[in-house]
Q: What sequence folds into this?
């Protein structure tokens, strides 16, 4: 059992301002827990489970068993799971961009599902550092965390001034996803920065002016555009293919 006050303290973490103030976020579900337990056990602050959870997965952690109705009260999911973990946000120092890898730059990506999918893609393709504008969705938003499928534990997300970042590292190439640009299949993406823009407006003019090589995914059929997460998949695949061959 948990008190009404604890439930209230957790529920306010559904909102960004309270997550930021408390420096805490949460994950839900056994698969997310398995990723956390393996790669970020040091972040665990509290662990709540129902009686139906597999308790063999929680050895070494302080576990509080709660009722299913209480899980529904603290969960951000339409269908709550059996596991809810409260985590401390990781302490990240501003890290220098990788010179031997691609650094992802997100300029105003606002849909949580898109951001979570991009984190998942980045982890899959071995991208370590993601630099995002202040108007990009919160990476600790429950929808982002859930869509990342554990990738939140494998990538570093830095909220920063993108113009300053790119100007400070002008020696690195800056690729930018655009409707008009070099064909992705002949562009030969290499180490540097890859900028992806807002779902509706693309890359802002300020950041676009710092792009050294606009690149695009050619259309072979019908459709107005790809969403930013789908585009990220194609760009990251081509980058890794060019590096590996």
A:
């Amino acid at each position: 059992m948990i008190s009404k006050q604890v439930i209230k303290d957790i529920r306010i973490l559904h909102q960004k301002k309270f997550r930021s103030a408390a420096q805490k976020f949460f994950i839900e579900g056994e698969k997310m827990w398995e990723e956390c337990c393996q790669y970020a056990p040091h972040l665990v602050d509290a662990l709540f489970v129902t009686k139906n959870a597999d308790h063999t997965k929680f050895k070494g952690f302080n576990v509080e068993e709660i009722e299913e109705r209480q899980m529904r009260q603290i969960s951000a999911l339409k269908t709550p799971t059996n596991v809810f973990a409260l985590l401390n946000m990781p302490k990240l120092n501003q890290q220098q961009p990788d010179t031997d890898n691609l650094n992802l730059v997100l300029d105003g990506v606002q849909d949580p599902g898109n951001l979570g999918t991009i984190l998942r893609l980045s982890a899959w393709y071995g991208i370590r550092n993601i630099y995002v504008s202040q108007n990009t969705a919160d990476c600790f938003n429950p929808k982002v965390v859930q869509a990342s499928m554990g990738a939140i534990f494998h990538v570093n997300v830095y909220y920063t001034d993108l113009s300053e970042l790119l100007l400070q590292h002008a020696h690195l190439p800056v690729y930018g996803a655009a409707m008009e640009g070099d064909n992705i299949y002949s562009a030969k993406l290499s180490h540097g920065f890859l900028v992806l823009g807002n779902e509706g407006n693309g890359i802002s003019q300020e950041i676009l002016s710092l792009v050294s090589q606009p690149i695009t995914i050619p259309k072979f059929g019908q459709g107005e555009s790809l969403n930013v997460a789908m585009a990220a998949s194609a760009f990251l695949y081509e980058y890794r293919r060019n590096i590996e061959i």
